[in-house]
Amino acid sequence: MSERSFEGKAVLVTGGSRGIGAAVARRFGSLGAHVAVGYRSGRDAAEALCAEIGAAGGTAVAVAGDVAVPAQAQAMVGRAHDAFGRLDVLVNAAGVGPYLPLAEIDEAHCRAIFDTNVLGTIMLTQAAAPLLPSPGGRIVHFASRLAFNPLPTSSVYSASKAAVVTLVHGFARELGPRGITVNAVAPGVIETDMTADILRERGEQILAATPLRRIGQPDDVAGVVTFLASADAGWVTGRTIIADGGLN
Ligand SMILES: NC(=O)c1ccc[n+]([C@@H]2O[C@H](COP(=O)([O-])OP(=O)(O)OC[C@H]3O[C@@H](n4cnc5c(N)ncnc54)[C@H](OP(=O)(O)O)[C@@H]3O)[C@@H](O)[C@H]2O)c1
């Protein structure tokens, strides 16, 4: 991938206000893309990131929306498209991940996780598909390593990410004839707000089980996403790429 591989292309990154999404947005900006930084509550963080991308010579706008609310997911995609007059890539990094033991799982917990992680994935894909270039459009969603190997207490979150793996496979079949690829990244433990408690409680154990002997950082995932969004990944679709430092 060259330094300006995404020159002139427009990318929406949901969950761009912090964590992995922010690293992905920053990386696209450095590769020449126009970036729409999606956020739900972190307006200041999203605007600060846009200013940072702008100061580095890129173009970025912050777009608000709760991906768990279909009308807002749709509006977010529309605003990203309108901001740059095109939309080449959708990256959906918005996600929520609280864990609960079986006895404490209730309806609100299930709905909160499935509405953002699953319904959001579906509605964003539906809204973006007609706007993406055909051929050449790219969609990258976020699954998790836990989709394949749930921890005790992570069952609902893990199941929501297993749904993403299957949705990506199915949507890739629907959008393939239009030359649009749909893939997912499944990170292991990456150091963000989402994993602060896990790393406090089990950081040493996770480090010991990681062949690369460090804790994953948001930037470790950004390059996998830009690869899947690049022209070089045109023959990869319907797949979920695990990026976990080889975690055992
Ligand atoms: N960190 C890990 O170890 C790990 C591992 C596997 C998979 N993942 C997945 O990777 C993605 C990014 O995770 P992360 O660790 O970067 O999370 P994070 O630091 O907790 O950040 C979550 C981001 O998602 C946004 N968001 C949450 N719910 C939303 C909603 N309903 N609508 C719109 N935006 C919403 C937040 O926006 P606001 O702050 O603006 O509200 C924030 O930008 C998630 O899908 C997560 O499940 C993470």
Annotation keywords:
248 residues, 7-stranded parallel β-sheet, 7 helices, Rossmann fold
Task: Write the SSE topology.
Layout: E1 10-14, H1 19-30, E2 34-39, H2 43-55, E3 59-64, H3 70-84, E4 89-92, H4 107-128, E5 138-142, H5 155-175, E6 181-187, H6 196-208, H7 218-229, E7 240-243
Parallel strand pairs: 1-2, 1-4, 2-3, 4-5, 5-6, 6-7
Helix pairs in contact: 1-2, 1-7, 3-4, 4-5
Bound molecules: NADP nicotinamide-adenine-dinucleotide phosphate.
Residues 14-15, 17-21, 39-42, 66-68, 93-97, 116, 142, 144, 187, 189-190, 192-195 line the site of NADP nicotinamide-adenine-dinucleotide phosphate.
Please characterize this protein's 3D structure.
This protein is an alpha/beta fold and 248 residues long. It has one domain (10-242): Rossmann fold (3-Layer(aba) Sandwich), CATH 3.40.50. The protein has seven helices and seven strands; from the N terminus they run βαβαβαβαβαβααβ. The chain has helices at 19-30, 43-55, 70-84, 107-128, 155-175, 196-208, 218-229; strands at residues 10-14, 34-39, 59-64, 89-92, 138-142, 181-187, 240-243. The protein has a seven-stranded parallel sheet with strand order 3-2-1-4-5-6-7, sandwiched between helices. Helix 4 links the parallel strand 4 (89-92) and strand 5 (138-142). It is globular, with a radius of gyration of 17 Å. Bound molecules: NADP nicotinamide-adenine-dinucleotide phosphate (NAP).
